[in-house]
Amino acid sequence: MKIAIVGAGMAGIGTLRYYIDHIDNPDMEIYMFDDSNAAGTGYPFGPDDDALLLNQRLKKMTLAPWDDKKEYVKYLKKNNPDLLKHEFITRPEFGEYSKDVFSEYVKDSRVTFVPTVVDDIDVIEKTYIIHADEKYEVDIVHLCIGQLPQTDIYNLKEIDKYIATPFPIERNSEVLLNAKSVGVIGTNLTSLDIIMYLHHNNYKNDILVTSRSGTVPFIRGNEAEVDIDVEALKQNRDITIQTIVDIFKEETKKQGIDFHLLTELNDMPVLDSLTYQLEHLDTLGVVQQIAEAMSEVLREVWNHLSIEDKKYYIKHIKGTHGQLTGPFPKMTAEKIVELIEAGQLTYVSGVKDISYDDEFVINSEDGSYSADVMVSAVGPNLSGENLADENNASPLVKTLIEKGILQVDELGGIKITYPEFSVISKAGVLDTMKLYGNLVSTTHINNSGVNLILKKIPHSIDKIIQ
Ligand SMILES: Cc1cc2nc3c(=O)[nH]c(=O)nc-3n(C[C@H](O)[C@H](O)[C@H](O)COP(=O)(O)OP(=O)(O)OC[C@H]3O[C@@H](n4cnc5c(N)ncnc54)[C@H](O)[C@@H]3O)c2cc1C
């Protein structure tokens, strides 16, 4: 049994260790491919500035969700007990643990790490040819390649002062910290990272955070318990999006919270919304716990929903649901409030266009603004014809789509079977080629989290072995 694991980030490490710990085969050969700088950490958790925080409480992080949910806490007790005093730690700190786990497992004599990116794969009957530094013939492929590059909405990629990929942010320090002003495209978690990086490094000039919608993720509320029978709901095959929304509304009402609060928060200026949230962290915690429970249900029932329901969810609900299930730490919010109040940070919404004419010109419904340097924080574009096109370039994904090995799903992302995660090629299902992570997030819905991705890997491997 020859296995290729393409990508040595979180999903790749999870796949590797599941084979080593749970598949009893002394003869298997595992080839793992990645750029040597990224191997062991992936995109978000590599060595970088201390301003970049995990968006989950550290006790929720583990690289072995199937064996030991407390593995990371135990690791810290042994290696860096001081960190356990913190609720949120930095992403590079988590990356030290993932790198240690990777280094440990890669020592197994059945594993070969190939420090090269894969640029093509051929499917020949029941085998695969992996094109890297040389060609490798294998029986099983796990594509653990993370997310596509961030999309270049305004076609700015040729401009020197445009930063298309913010991380590692230290690589961009000179341009950012010497800028007369910094513009950021997008208001999601990456935009908060950029603001916190600038603040942490004593940047004193203007920061403009621009977007079409103007919505910012919510602050992580206080921990809360809610009484929802998630297991029973997961088994309900007749569930619809309306049922899920109704349960959400009912639960918030039971807890004395008006469901309309979410729309009201999104309609407020960012400063007012954050100030309100900071004063109501208990309320937020409860709503987030309900949203989390709904997310857990949704992930299980998603592939039984009608296509209309799925489209409705993606268009009307996913955004707010994501604000609740992907929140950011309170201490970040406090800093953002300080920066807005000091007049250093401005949120510009209703953006129509951004162009370049000696400086970046942001054309919005409220008027025109300018910035010296512009950073993209918009995430990848998974939709249809844009997936892996020149503004979302990923050579391997583009090549595999052109060859019909990967296909774009009707909802965006790449088509797979669920819960096996087998690639659905033009020629049919490839039972021994798996794909995990952001590229399949229209089938493995709302999967942005290390635990969420890793939890699904055992079943997908067990299915092959059977
Ligand atoms: C900025 C940011 C912050 C995040 N913060 C958190 C957080 O705090 N907590 C959390 O749980 N989740 C967080 N996430 C979500 C996070 O992306 C996932 O939880 C996790 O990193 C995804 O794992 P992955 O293996 O799919 O991707 P990655 O960990 O990024 O790994 C993909 C790997 O594949 C490699 N690769 C790509 N193409 C090829 C190729 N052709 N050949 C060989 N190798 C290739 C890449 O170099 C990379 O190392 C964050 C995401 C981002 C973008």
UniProtKB/TrEMBL annotation:
InterPro entries given in the database record: FAD/NAD-bd_sf, HpyO/CreE_NAD-binding, L-asp_N-monooxygenase_NS-form
Domain of life where this protein originates: Bacteria
SUPFAM superfamilies: FAD/NAD(P)-binding domain
Residue ranges occupied by any FAD-dependent urate hydroxylase HpyO/Asp monooxygenase CreE-like FAD/NAD(P)-binding domain in the UniProt entry: 4-147
PANTHER family registered for this protein in UniProt: BLR0577 PROTEIN
Record-given protein name: FAD/NAD(P)-binding protein
Species of origin: Nosocomiicoccus massiliensis
